[in-house]
Amino acid sequence: MPSLTASRAGDRHLCLLMMTAAHGAQVGASPRRWCSVCGFAAPYRCVRCGSRFCTRKCYGVHTETRCLKFVG
Ligand SMILES: [Zn+2]
Ligand SMILES: [Zn+2]
User: In the chain, what's the furthest Cα-to-Cα distance?
Assistant: First the structure.
């Protein structure tokens, strides 16, 4: 059954394409993150407004001067 074999091959090919697309999406969904206070690489994020910051010091400056959402 040549047609059946071709169908299975097509399914595998489609699966590989989907996996590649998913992998590419993950890579593309990771934008460069910079501190909103000093502009340095920022691995952390403000839990209130989502702004990026690099250290607790910058986070403190952010919450006191730049945070968009103050609780209370
Ligand atoms: Zn910073
Ligand atoms: Zn904030």
Answer: 71
Q: Which ligand has its closest atom nearest to the C-alpha of 58?
A: 1
pTM more than 0.70? no
The torsion angles phi and psi of 51, rounded to 5 degrees, stand at -70, 150
pLDDT tens for the 72 residues of the chain, in order: 666 665 566 666 665 555 555 444 444 445 578 999 999 999 999 988 999 999 999 999 999 988 875 545
Structure-token pair, residue 61: 């400056």
Q: Which listed ligand is nearest to 54 at the C-alpha?
A: 1
Ligand 1 center from residue 2 Cα (angstroms)? 62
Cα 12 to middle of ligand 1, angstroms: 47
| Sign of the dihedral through C-alpha 48, 56, 39, 43 | negative
